[in-house]
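[Target chain]
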Amino acid sequence: MLRPLAVAVVALLSCETATAESWLCVGDQGTGFEFKNGKWRSVIYKNADTLKIVIRTPTASDREFLKRPNILDDPNPKWLAVPLGEEFPTMACNENGNPDFVNCEGAIQELRFNKSSLRFQYTYRPGYIDSKAGSDDNGDEPKMAIGRCSMI
């Protein structure tokens, strides 16, 4: 009787350890700038909760993706950030000095995550400085969101 219980406890602890390196991050609030009627203006985004990003350890197929030319500079990240529903990661993530903080970098975006508070800050950078005079209405607009993450 004791042996099956011990096996179950070990299995449960193994599962908990295995999932401790993945999080689902969901936006709470968002702000940014938009180009409308010929002018840039600040805006509050009401749909920040549609921002959903999974931070997870790389899989074998991710490792193959990282070997090919892609948008990520880091070929060996500790984690990857993948927008929910996307096939490929958009940011490579590592601890940066403090083990509580995960820093994710991509070609046009970044995410900072605190593993203790389970809070994150996301920034989409293109838009304002990337546009040339007269071409500001290309749809790229700088944005920032804050939110919370849950272990998965």
Observations:
- The chain is about 15% helix and 45% strand.
